[in-house]
Amino acid sequence: MSKIICLGIAVLDQIFTLPDLPEKAGKYFARDFLEVGGGPASTAAVTAARLGTDVEFWGRVGDDNVGDRIISELNAYGVNTRFTKRINDAHSGLSAVLVDQHGERLIINRANPGLESDPSWLPLERLQTGDVVLVDSRWIQGAEVILNKASEKGLISVLDADSTPNEDISPLVEKASHVAFSKNGLREYTGETDFESALYRASTTLDSWVCATDGARGTFWIENNEIIQIPAFKVDVIDTLGAGDAFHGALAYCLTQKFNIRQAIRFSNAVAAIKCTKLGGRAGIPTRTEVDQFLTERK
């Protein structure tokens, strides 16, 4: 079985559903509430596990109840958390998420500086057991170390290049073999406000393969100096939380399966779309069988 190693953050999402997202201060009453694990790399790890591959998650959580719940849920999905470090006297990441009737969301994240950034404990020798590495940009120090080692070993590596305020992700972008930008991440990295100009700039200045996602518009990349677009699938959207993370986990999975790029993007778009049909960042993540059936129905 192929293997993916994911590194980044893991949090607990507290999700409240509302008719509309608040526009001003006041008291609002939720229609529904649930708690579920979240975080870009950890949700990508869950996605890869659901699709049927072996996955390890390398990250940091506190030694609190939230950390217990994060670890327990990842294990329940089949993600190996042996190399997820528990930090003494630290609080695990926590997010408040508001989801409206259209599936759009507002996220308030509490990142804890007590989750020490030192990556010296990472078991880099285990990279020789992996096929693909996936990192998010929320733990820069850890991501840089693992991408450098993956590059040395010639491993495929995927970077979830989302918007990361006050952090320079250039060292990560320049090391990953595959960079998947969000629309905002692409804008921040290139300094270009026009989406197409930003995509051209990133694609022509980096040695890596580059794509960018833009919500319902789908996924874009450059091929033979032309922009290729594969639109997102139309589904009845309940919640978009975690859709991008699921896309990245699916992309990493496709790379272990040797899909060509068009197959990989269509497959990953399908995973993200199916995820959006249920509330919560992970509840809708499909199995490989469910994705294949979804794609067959939409030929």
Textual characterization of the structure:
It is a single chain. This protein has 299 residues and is α/β, with parallel strands linked by helices. The protein has a single domain (3-297), classed as 3-Layer(aba) Sandwich (UDP-N-acetylmuramoyl-L-alanine:D-glutamate ligase). It is 33% helix and 26% strand. The strands form 2 sheets. A 9-stranded mixed sheet has the order 5-4-1-8-9-10-11-12-13, sandwiched between helices. A 4-stranded mixed sheet has the order 3-2-6-7. A hairpin with a 5-residue loop joins strand 6 and strand 7 (105-110). It is globular and about 55 Å long. The model has no long low-confidence stretch (mean pLDDT 94).
Amino- and carboxy-terminal Cα gap? 28 Å
CATH class: Alpha Beta
At the fold tier of CATH, the topology name is UDP-N-acetylmuramoyl-L-alanine:D-glutamate ligase
* Helix-strand sequence: EEEHEHEEEEHEHEHHEEEHHH
Give the proportion of residues in helices: 25-40%
Give the strand order of the largest sheet, numbering strands 1, 2, ... along the chain: 5-4-1-8-9-10-11-12-13
Q: What is the makeup of the main sheet?
A: 9 strands, mixed
What low-confidence regions span 5 or more consecutive residues with pLDDT below 50?
A: none
- The CATH architecture term is 3-Layer(aba) Sandwich
- What would CATH call the homologous superfamily? Ribokinase
Count of runs of 4 or more consecutive helical residues: 9
Number of strands: 13
Give the total of domains. 1
Shape: globular
